[in-house]
Write a structure and sequence with these properties.
- The chain is α/β, with parallel strands linked by helices.
- The protein has two domains: 1-43 and 117-185, FAD/NAD(P)-binding domain (3-Layer(bba) Sandwich); 47-113, no CATH class.
- Helix content is 24%, strand content 31%.
- The protein is built from five helices and ten strands, in the order E-H-E-E-H-H-E-E-E-H-E-E-E-E-H.
- The strands form three sheets. A six-stranded mixed β-sheet has the order 7-2-1-10-9-8.
- Helix 1 (15-26) runs parallel beside helix 4.
- The longest helix has 14 residues, at 115-128.
- Bound molecules: flavin-adenine dinucleotide.
Length: 196
């Protein structure tokens, strides 16, 4: 099997993986990111960017792109809970006015921009800084030894497999992380919204 090598392999190309890729590249650390889906998220999901996040994004040169993209969200003041996009409405509430934090941060306030719009901005900047971001690549096996980690990847379009040998692996494969489970790392706490 063909084997590549990289200092850092990031599994998962959501907000966490793309951020890891971007911040590592900005620090001059080479990485390969593999995401099983063919592109960034098509679902809006998270939409609120807090001032501290924007401060960090400013540092890596994407704050302006985020603010420009978020202009289209100005005036969106309602938050709806629905059974599905075409289904019944459960509840609609008014989003509170964002607090003005300009006294303590160079960033003025929380910005609304959904995850499907943020991820491409992070990805483009990460690639610009030298990150190797690959879509349609699924991590299917992972083995750790004293010197590093070997991960087998399946090319979901072509069907072939290859391996990447990394000094470090970042498990950015989501809340239900198969990598975390494979390593036997448990979870504690009440979980989201009081569920267990
Ligand atoms: C409806 C909805 C609304 C939400 N609203 C908010 C909100 O308002 N505010 C907020 O803060 N959060 C919100 N969230 C949560 C937010 O979306 C998550 O916290 C965020 O996506 C977590 O990012 P992540 O990168 O850890 O995981 P994910 O975004 O889940 O990304 C993980 C990625 O890993 C990939 N992956 C998994 N296994 C493999 C593998 N073996 N090989 C390669 N790739 C793999 C997946 O395809 C996925 O793209 C919401 C979520 C949902 C569903």
């Amino acid at each position: 099997m063909r084997t590549e090598s990289t200092p850092v392999l990031i599994i998962g190309g959501g907000l966490v993986g793309l951020s890891a890729s971007l911040f590592l590249s900005w620090r001059g650390v080479r990485s390969v990111l593999v995401e099983r889906h063919p592109g960034t998220s098509i679902h809006p999901r998270a939409w609120g960017l807090y001032p501290r996040t924007l401060e960090l994004l400013r540092g890596v040169g994407v704050e302006k792109a985020v603010l420009a993209e978020s202009a289209g969200f100005a005036g969106h003041v309602l938050n709806g809970r629905v059974e599905s996009l075409a289904g019944a409405e459960i509840a609609v509430s008014r989003i509170p006015e964002p607090e003005d934090v300009s006294g303590v941060s160079p960033v003025e306030r929380i910005v609304s921009l959904s995850q499907d719009r943020v991820e491409p901005i992070l990805m483009e900047r990460a690639r610009e800084l030298g990150s190797d971001v690959r879509f349609g690549a699924e991590a299917v096996e992972l083995a750790q030894d004293a010197d590093g980690v070997t991960v087998v990847l399946r090319d979901r379009a072509g069907g072939g497999e290859y391996a990447i040998r990394a000094e470090y692996v970042v498990a950015a494969d989501g809340a239900h992380s198969p990598v975390r489970e494979r390593l036997g790392i448990g979870r504690g706490g009440g979980g989201c919204c009081g569920t267990r």
